[in-house]
Amino acid sequence: MKAIRRLTVRPVLPDPLRPLSDLARNLRWSWHPETRDLFHSVDPECWTASGGDPVRLLGTVRPARLAELAEDRRFLRRLTAVADDLDHYMTGDRWYQAQSGRLPAAVAYFSPEFGITAALPQYSGGLGILAGDHLKAASDLGVPLVGVGLLYRHGYFRQSLSRDGWQQEHYPVLDPHELPLAPLKERDGTPAHVALALPGGRELRARVWLAQVGRVPLLLLDSDVEENDPGERGVTDRLYGGGSEHRLLQEMLLGIGGVRAVRTYCRITGHPAPEVFHTNEGHAGFLGLERIAELCDGGSDFGSALEAVRAGTVFTTHTPVPAGIDRFDRELVARHFGPDAELPRIEVERVLRLGMETYPGGEPNLFNMAVMGLRLAQRANGVSVLHGGVSRGMFAGLWPGFDADEVPITSVTNGVHAPTWVAPEVFRLGARQIGVQRAEDALAVGGSDRWDSVADIPDRDIWELRRTLRAQLVEEVRERLRASWRQRGAGTAELGWIDDALDPDVLTIGFARRVPSYKRLTLMLRDRERLTELLLHPERPIQIVVAGKAHPADDGGKRLVQELVRFADDARVRHRIVFLPDYGMAMAQKLYPGCDIWLNNPLRPLEACGTSGMKAALNGCLNLSVLDGWWDEWYQPDFGWAIPTADGAGTDPDRRDAIEADALYDLLEQRITPRFYERGASGLPDRWLEMVRRTLSLLGPKVLAGRMVREYVERLYTPAAEAHRAMDPDSARGLAEWKARVRAAWPGVSVDHVETSAATASAELGTTLALRVRVKLGDLAPEDVEVQAVSGRVDSEDRITDAARTPLKPVGGPDLEGRWAYEGPLALDRTGPFGYTVRVLPAHRLLASGVETGLVAVPSGDLVEAAGLLMR
Length: 872
Prior knowledge:
Helices cover 39% and strands 17% of the residues. The protein has 29 helices and 28 strands. The longest helix has 29 residues, at 459-487. The radius of gyration is 29 Å and the shape is globular. The termini are far apart. InterPro entries: Agluc_phsphrylas, Glyco_trans_35, Glycogen/Maltodextrin_Phosph, Glycogen_phosphorylase_DUF3417, Pyridoxal_P_attach_site.
């Protein structure tokens, strides 16, 4: 019988056990072993049944057991120690508090998904896991971050398989009262709400829930409230679900409603107001519009408000392909803004101009969320060095006249939160060498270039650890495999083979991620006979564990899953290759440590970063990957293997897959399996263990989320906070007026004459030439511009590479024709073909760079030819 109504019955804890409730509600337990061990000891069976979720545990443990624990002095001492540790963690000074300078009072971090723990399933893949790791690392460092997202009542889907291997989706309903959340309440005890205006006089209301992620509050907006009509109640139903209007409403609620939720939270709690707003991908871009509207309500004009908002905004793009960006029809966006809907104070055309693709190659009737994010942020970044370069090329149309390498998008390479992803056994081995506190600091804060203490761990200890982790993975796989086959309709009599699935002494390869086509889930199947030979090799076998979800609307991805599953179902190989459905954080935390090799074979350069290999590396797993994302940046032969790519422009996609699959098989046959199975004089795989050791000691410190967040603080948050403080109302108005004046006058700016002291087309290294330039500034003055010499080596098409930029100084006043003279030295500091040019850029103390306005004046073609700007 089905219940007609569902209630959440909360346990009443005896007074001595009250701290358990606080510990359960702070998600620090998800990365703090002592807290998890404490909850495990409350009731080991209930802990396992609850999936390691303290809130569910406390809701199911027997009252008699709680009464027993309330009298258990040993347990109470442990409880007091863990509660005191949390209090110290929450209130004590950490890395951020020890920094000098005027750091941001607070930073608001917006993301459409957050992967904090399996107990709070609000993530679909890498973007959400990265956002969760960002919050956890910020907490460990003491960065005053406020997270903002949506609470999806169905989360992302749960995945199972049909008998024939087709992906099936299930959407369990999540009750916020059964999650580690608390409603944000006004001071009178009523729930805090935010509201958005919708066309036709309707309203979208959302409740605000609070998840405490260590020191970081995470605000989650939930539209499933009684005040909403059924359509509005479903806005936050599913992550990345619904059609265009549904997604637009989600993103309006995240951005506009999210800012209102932050203001409400700060008003209620006294938390410092954020000086910096960080938009994690374009989904939250509307937050900039809400902040502009706030300033307009305070008396600013739109242009001034735009400059003030840009100064304090950071935008991170995670998408290396245009198809991955949310784009909406112009008319749909227009209908949701203006006098009859949201932000009525701002003209609809101003809203649209921020997101329209008004550049060569763009679709002029589409509103692009990433384009809006870039136009509303003075600072932007990609998530690896390679991805930063890809992003500069992808968005170069927003800065016409500039080479892609000057587009103002930098990069901060992602990292992973080591306390979350490092297996307890790995941590204990490290702590044995340097002590628990130093080990915790090394993983959470980082700061060193290498972990030299790894060199002191005996080979035998590392090898025994690796086998232990592999054996744990084998047990986990068998358990999940058995459950999956039962879901697919298999009877117990059919499943005896699972007892022999995988082997704790066989080289184990992991491949787990989302299943878009560019990640090439089935590249390993390209030559099935060759793969089968590798799996069944009599002396050097391999075994592969695969997991991943295809988007519910992606039938192509589902077909890839089915193809892999059908191969893994073959009785010849099913003990050596398995597909595990319902990939998520709980599975990942077992999978990364238990694998010897982490495989990644995307189409280069479509992997923006790809952090799963980082998590594997922190557990002593070696990477086998295409040189894409972070691996392109940090690959060394000590850390694993690079799969050669055939990514030339003329390569047929099918042929490319064939070439790269062959390269993968060759690496496995000729280099990887021999190294894993060969034994040295000690009876151990010495050369393999040396690679594990170097991965841990040299790569480990690089891949930390602590390193990543420190970079954000130093390179993006602090400069953004300084720019925000400098942009007082008068300064913002002055900058907006200056930009308008410069744009109007720019057609009158030109380079009129260039000459140097060079008499010939060749010169010796170290020579300094005198450069003299005459420019027309029209209605502008020298203080409005910077005249630069740009010089460097030139390629076969006379393009300057690795350019150096030298400001030239004005000499005297304008001549009779209104031209200004500029002079400066030109150092010939490189051998070989050398070239230079000159250009004029707008210059203002409040610009982040001269490229910011997208305006530039360069010599005409005739002038270049007459000046002879190349030296060979």
